[in-house]
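Dissemination and training. As part of the outreach component of the grant, students in the summer workshop were shown how a complex can be specified as a set of sequence lines and then modelled as a single object. The example used during the hands-on session is reproduced here so that future cohorts can follow it. Participants entered these lines:
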Amino acid sequence: MAEFSWLPRSPLEHALVVGACGAREVAPGISLTEIRNFDLIQIMARRGKGAELANAAKARFGMAAPEVPKAVSASDVTLIWSGPDQFLVLSKGGKHAMDILSQAFSQSASLSDQSHARALISISGTKARAMLAKLSSLDLHPASFPIGAAAATSIDHTSVNLWRGNDRPDGQAVFNLLVFATFAESLWHTMLDAAAEYGVDIGHSAEV
Amino acid sequence: MRIVCPFCGERELGEFTCLGDAKPVRPAAGASEDEVFDYVYLRDNIAGEMSEHWYHGGGCRAWLKITRNTLTHEICSVEPAAGAGARQAAR
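and obtained this result:
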């Protein structure tokens, strides 16, 4: 029998070059960080089982799953609204991986493992909102897109899940973005083009 | 043009796809050929308010039932189509 060695590889492996990019004469206005090695499960209520799913989610995560466009976090998991009666479970280390969640939600929901199907990009910095404003039609001002706000939307004709995480220690807003793996490279280049004038600091991290 | 999705809020037109007339109802299995022909091919060309199915594919991927004025493009009402999400919207 043939021996296979499956190594997880980032969809941005080729496009992402760690370091500075764009304008160099200024302090970088944007940080683009790809988050790698996460567990991501899509959970969708089966027909008529929305209330049952809500109960199961509360029992499993100790908090209610969002029923409006929001993202809620506990110490080891983030639940991101992705549509009516559906949400994404973002975690790491296997604690909320497919094999475990599929048992917890076997009665109420259909699950789909998206861990290797999406790229997760974290966008922050003084010019993050200015850069996103070039690409997104959403109002990302703190008054209408506060911490915990989420949206299923399109950026550059590409479907994304966008949500605002906790601010950085220096007070800058953090926008997290999940994009289909095969679209990630295209969106990455689009964002780099939009961000270049502000100066970009590019990196990757294993911390969700 | 902007459409207020009942789940996502106000969004640009580009996130939506129009399927067309929401009025035709699929005939029963034993329906006559004429009824099926009607359902598949015949459409009213309405000048005024029209009920349509739209898909929020660039957002929450919910099907919506929208009343739109074909003369002015005014969106008069938006509600979730039957099926997923109807429970939530009803609240």
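Residues 45 and 85 of chain A are 6 Å apart (CA to CA). Students were then asked to discuss how this feature might be tested experimentally.
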